[in-house]
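Worked problem 6 (solution included).
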Amino acid sequence: MNLRVRATLSMIGVFLLLPALGGTARAASAGDVVEALPTTVYLAPGKLLEVPVKAWHLRYRSTSATGEPNVVSGTLLVPGSSYSHGTRPIVGYAVGTHGLGDQCAPSAAMAGGTEAELAIMSLMLLKGWAVAVTDYEGLGTPGDHTYMAGLSQGHAVLDSIRAAARVPEANLSGAAPVVVMGYSQGGSSAAWAAQLQPSYAPELRLKGVAAGGVPADLRAVADHLDGTPDFGLAAAAGIGMNAAYPDLHLEKYLTSEGAALFGDARDDCVSDLRAKFGGRRLAELTTADVTNLPAWRARLAENRLGGSAPRVPLFLYHAKGDELIPYEVGRTLRREYCARGVNVLWTALPVGSHVLGAVEGAPLAVAWLATRVAGLPAISNC
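Solution. The predicted structure is:
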């Protein structure tokens, strides 16, 4: 077969594969579904207490912190009953810290019956809303989890919503009303989704965002955790930021002990991180003041929330006795958003721990999101 015939046959094959959309193929874009496999979700280990929803394990296209295309995994949950109030809303639900290893991913936890935040998701499923739960970049897909890289996390949340509407069997609409919710790491992710949405996903009909226990300033949180039993969370953030930004070169500044500890932690879940790093200080494990290096200062500033104004109302909540994310970090974010004219409803929770803040704040947040879905006016207490 001569080269001209081969070329002709190749061109015919290409045109036969093109979708009938004006005769041209659509380029892959953020939010496109790579794979959607039916799955089953459980409330208890041992495949007990199956959650009565239709569920899919997703892989979908998204965008890294540096603007590169990537693929992220997640889970889509859709109530089995019909929705009688118009178009079924879609929630982008951002989970709190699970860890760095793929086995810690929310999708794995839901399939294994160990996902504690399913109790919060159930509050929304009972309202008939679809819930899209991202695993975030590198948590359930190849590569290191870019833990606490806000730009990556915000993209992953917004694209999980896009992907949900592109799963044909889910019967969801790209014009559905959308809300976003998250706490802790998820609170950061939700707030980043709110900030990024106007430029990154303007087509989404975002109605409101609820974000609790938000680690808005990573440097302030890292300083607070240094030397505490929860220093492992700060160490994980260092690993995550280093994964998101190759220019940071964390490995250059680690002692031999630090290199061993940080290397071993790259596939750990939360309990292991706490056990390995509890009570340690960053200065003990590094050869330089890492967070004050120019490259680190720039990336940490880039991932500090509050620098731009979301266009939708926000519900921000924070426990007064939060031992992980200082209460003042949350108050500062509120002040900065209010100064930028954002409609913020702030709630200070009179509880004494980070976990209790999640438990006490979740019903308030879901109730507030329901008012956004219903189209009621949003009240600010700026």
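Discussion: The radius of gyration is 21 Å.
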